[in-house]
Amino acid sequence: MARCALTKRILSGGWPYCALALLCAFLHACNVRSPYPHADLAPLSEQPSFAVLTTNYVSTAIALLDTEGELITEAWVDSGTTPPGITTTLGGDVVLPSTSPSDGTLTLIDRLGVDVITRISVPSGEVLQQVHAQSNGTAETGFRANPQDWLVIDADSAWVSRHEPNRNPRATGLDRGNDVLFIDLKSGLAAGRADFVSLEQSVQGTAIFARPTQLQRLQDTIAVGMSRLSLDFRTAATGALGFVDVNTLGQTFLEFPGLVNCGMVAKVPNSDTELWVLCAGDTFGGAEERRLRSGLVRVSAERPGIARETYRMRATDHGNLLPPSTGLIPLDTERVIVIASGDASHEQEDQVLLIDTGNNTVTTVFEATESFVLGQGCYLEAARVLLIPDASAGARRWVVTSGHSLEPLPTIDVSPLRRLPAREIRAIQTREES
What we know:
- The chain is mainly beta.
- It has helices at about 1-15, 15-20, 25-30, 285-290, and strands spanning about 50-55, 60-65, 70-80, 95, 105-110, 115-120, 125-130, 145-155, 155-165, 175-185, 190-195, 200-205, 205-210, 210-220, 220-225, 240-245, 250-260, 265, 275-280, 295-305, 305-315, 325-330, 335-340, 350-355, 360-365, 380, 385-390, 395-400, 405-410, 420-425.
C-alpha cells in the first residue's frame, strides 16, 4: 500500500513523463487511472494538416494539428501504442520525413538502435507497415543503420537514407550502410541501394563517410544531402550534394568548397529542378567556429547529371550572424526560414532567421529564451501559416502576409498533459493532394 500511495503522490505532483513511465508496472496494481488518454490510433473525425513530434528522447508522441495549427490531439500514437501491425514500438529518437509522403500516410522514422520506419494510414489509424532499415528485416547482424529520411517514389517503392556505415568487412551488399536503400513497398524489404563510397576520404588521417541525410526528388533524380562526417562527427570534409538517377542508380555529385555538413535539402517551391541546401558548419564547434563554414546554397539541376550552384549565403558575410544550422523551410522562390542554434554556454540563444536571397539580407524573426529548443518546422502555403516547434513552449505560429511580413499568432501547447517537448513539425498530405 505504501508503494501505491507513493505512486499517487508522484502523479499528483506532476513528475516528468519519463519518471511516470517507470511506474507503469505499479499503476494496474494500484488501480490508479492514467493522467491522460491512451494513444490508440483511433480513427480521426477530421483530416489533420500537421504532425508534431514531441519527445524527451525517452518517450515519444505524435500530436496532430488542423489547418490553422490548432490542436486535434496531443498523442494519436506514442511509445506505448501497440495496435495490430506494430511489432516495434516508438523509441526516443524519432523523426518525420523531410517530404510529406504522397501516399497520405503518417510516417515515423525510428533512428539509431531501432532502425524502423512505421507507416500509418490517415485518418483511419490503420498501421500499414513497419519497414526495417536492414536487408534481412532485423538487426541480427549488429548493424545499426540510423535511417534519416524516407521518400516515397510511387505506390510500389520508396527510398531511405542510412547515415551509418557498416564496419563489418564481411557485411552483405545490402547491409553496408552509408547509402540510400531502395524499398519494395509491397514486401517491405530492401531491393537495391545507391552506394556513396566514392565520397569517402581521409581528412588529416581521419576517415570521413558520406553519411546521406535528407532526400528530395527532382523529376527522375533523387537529391541526397551529405553530411560527410567522421564516425565521431567531429571531423568534416567539403560539403556535397549527391544525385541518384531513379531508373539507373547512376550517381553524380556537386561539392561546396568552403562549406561543410550539408545534409539538409529542400525543394524551391513550385520547382522540380531547384533546391536549397543548408550547410550547418562544424558539428561541435561554438558559434564562432560554426560560422566559418556554414551557409545556404541554391542549386539548379535542370538536366539529369548536371547541377550547378546559383546562389550562396555564407554566415561570415553577415557580421556576427548566429550561424544557420537546422530547420530549413522555403517560403517562396527567394525567401527561406532557417534556425540558428545557440551554444552550450547560453551566451547566444536560438533564433529564427529569414533569409531573403533577392536582396541578400538576413532578418531575425524570433529569438528564443534558451539554446537548442527550436526545431524543424514547416510552412503550409495554402493557409499561409508557418509553424516552428519550441521545446520550451509548444508550436510557435506566424501568418505570412501578402506583403511578405511575418505576423505572430498565439503559441499552441501541443502536449498539455504529457508535457513532452515539441521537436519537429511537418505537413501531412491527403491522398487527394498527392
